[in-house]
Design brief:
Elements lengths: L1 E3 L2 E5 L4 E6 L5 E6 L14 E3 L2 E5 L10 E5 L6 E6 L20 E3 L4 E5 L21 E5 L6 E6 L17
Antiparallel strand pairs: 1-2, 2-3, 3-4, 5-6, 6-7, 7-8, 9-10, 10-11, 11-12
């Protein structure tokens, strides 16, 4: 779980983010992070950074865009969304990696670091030419606005399912 003030946050397998009152267990709100009927799910604990509850998504279908989303801890409203699948036409980008494990936060640099999964289709590289930008990568984002500070791709054009989704240790 993630904790902010007197509230607990957790994700569900059907891609919801739930907020509970830690004192009595009452549900404060329950929001949809992504549409599970299209193949999304959530597998991570939310990362709480000041007044942001940050969650990512999982899914193995070729048509899904990976993303991170910051949620307002009080209202459940989306603050920002960063897509690990770059916009169509971006050089070297034909797919994006899922953000299925919790990242980490560096308060001295005010950056979150998040690992991303493999490109899809997983083992059929010929259908996705280029490096498959932001797959098998560590990305650094500003937690206040979701802007990308930098990215490092450990396995460009991955053909072996070598995710980089481990929690980065600072």
């Amino acid at each position: 779980v993630g904790i902010y003030e007197d509230w607990l946050y957790f994700t569900t397998p059907d891609a919801h983010l739930v907020s509970l009152d830690a004192k009595n267990g009452k549900v404060r709100w329950d929001i949809v992070v992504a549409d599970s009927t299209t193949g999304y799910w959530t597998t991570m604990s939310p990362l709480v950074v000041r007044d942001h509850v940050i969650v990512g998504v999982s899914g193995d279908f070729d048509n899904l865009r990976g993303f991170l989303r910051a949620i307002d801890p009080e209202t459940g409203a989306t603050q920002w969304t960063w897509y690990s699948t770059p916009p169509a036409g971006t050089p070297g980008a034909t797919t994006g990696g899922m953000t299925w494990m919790t990242g980490t936060y560096d308060p001295s640099l005010n950056l979150i670091y998040w690992g991303t999964g493999n490109p899809t289709p997983v083992l059929t590289a010929s259908s996705r030419p280029g490096d498959d930008l932001y797959t098998c990568s560590i990305v650094a984002l500003n937690p206040d606005n979701g802007k990308l500070a930098w990215a490092f791709q450990a396995s460009p054009h991955d053909t072996h399912d070598w995710d980089a989704a481990e929690v980065p240790v600072l």
